[in-house]
Amino acid sequence: MIVRAEAERLALKVPTEPYYAGRWGVTRGVGTFDVVDPVTERRLMTVQAAGPAEVDSAVSFARSALDDGAWGRMDGATRGRLLNRVADLLEERSEEFAALESLDVGKPGFEPRAIDLPQSVRTFRHFAGWADKLEGRSIPTSGYMGRPTVSYTVREPVGVVAAITPWNSPTMIAAWKIAPALAAGCAVILKPPEEAPLTSLLLASLIEEAGFPPGAFSVLPGRGSVTGQLLIDHPGVDKISFTGSPETGYKVAVAAAKGFRRITLELGGKSPQIVFADADLDAAADGVAVGIFANQGEVCAAGSRILVARAFYDEVVERLVTRARGVKVGDPFDEGTTMGALINARQLERVSRYIEAGVAGGARCVVGGGRPGRPGYFVEPTLFADATNSMTIAREEIFGPVGTIIPFDSEEEAVAIANDCDYALSATLWTSDVGRAHRVSRGVKAGAVAVNGWSPLDPSLPWGGFKLSGQGRELGWAGIEANTEEKTVTIVL
Ligand code: NAD
Fold first, then answer.
1. How far is the CA of 167 from the centre of ligand 1 (A)?
2. Bridge-partner residues for 164, per DSSP?
3. Ligand 1: which of 223, 248, 263 to mutate, most ligand atoms within 8 Å of CB?
4. pLDDT computed for residue 456 by the predictor
5. Which residue's CA is the nearest one to ligand 1's atom 22?
6. Residue 421 annotated as catalytic
7. pLDDT tens sequence across 121-147
8. Is 402 helix (H, G, I), strand (E, B) or coil?
């Protein structure tokens, strides 16, 4: 396992410039920005931000790579080989990536080692497999003016894809966007999060090493309001794949509306975890605690609304309090740490404000609510009981380790509370009744429902939500559809 001092040394070797047009550097740039370690509050690195000149050059180079370059001419099997090469390189260096992700994001070491990196490797392998299987369909028709026809479809790459990612799981979410787009033959321009760009910049160097032709992939670090906005406004971008807040998602949708360019929006969530009276309460308490405390609660699918059958309410609250007390908050590189620091001072302030709102709104804080007495952007795992679904802490996305526990009296009421929400990303059910599992899965409005487990991730499974949670799906076949146009060809015989 890589220790903190070694991770800090590795961070110094990560590229700190944009990569586009097949080279690293800037022509003009728009200055630099600092990346801060959320645990020590010290500067980790300073990165060159891409500006108008770099965005313009990246987009036009990507377009030429598609229209006149080696990338546009490359067959699917070769694209698949290159994607498998990225997977191999990422796997070989996954300890290094995991350590850098912990350093940059503040998440405990075991999480990127057990989740983010294996998931990212599997995502590249999954889409490597799709690259030479993008088949069309042969469709019978009733003919044309009395003459027979042959009609078929082909799948073509959407074109230049801008991929914009958030800071909570930068490697994995970048893999979710890059791998399907490259498998489909698109040219990808990644704008990583300014708060945590380390692993995205390193991933770009691996993609270069894997042998992708210039223009197939670029990375443009910079602030969202500058570099990100320039990229989404650029008319040469054919599709924007965005993960982040609904507020920025709205800006993406407005920018994409000019020219009716395609979008995939993966926005936030306020996901219910429903514990029915027939559940295995121990397993449910373990799963619910992971669902709200993993990655410090900075997860789009965080199960922040915990709905519990009234008959077992007190018992479940007690078990969850015990689980929360068992969480070890500390330096991600310390042995035994199970929760790290929030990403930055702004996020700490946001989460603290919601904790105050919980108390002011009349919910009972049964555990946590404070900050450990140490530097860094830490907050205690926090649970509110005796809450209602109309309270601010039950309605707004907190994006921190704060759960709101709400009682219900019947299955119908549980579904009604779950659906009384502006978001619809995911839901978790805990029950031993198979009929109820299917009934409630159908009844709950969410892009994904998990029964007796929290949010299982797999590159084969479509992922995404609706309402304020976004639009479109990533991963699996949905990831290929999202990055291709289906063309119909008809030959009159
Ligand atoms: P954010 O919207 O502030 O930033 C996300 C990305 O967008 C960053 O790269 C940022 O630089 C960029 N950006 C910001 N303003 C931009 C603009 N005007 N034009 C173009 N790009 C711009 O979100 P965040 O604070 O980084 O992430 C937290 C949010 O993301 C939460 O709401 C969370 O739920 C959501 N999220 C969703 C998922 C999902 O899969 N649904 C996954 C992770 C995070």
1. 8
2. 191, 242
3. 248
4. 85
5. 224
6. no
7. 999 999 999 999 999 999 999 999 999
8. strand
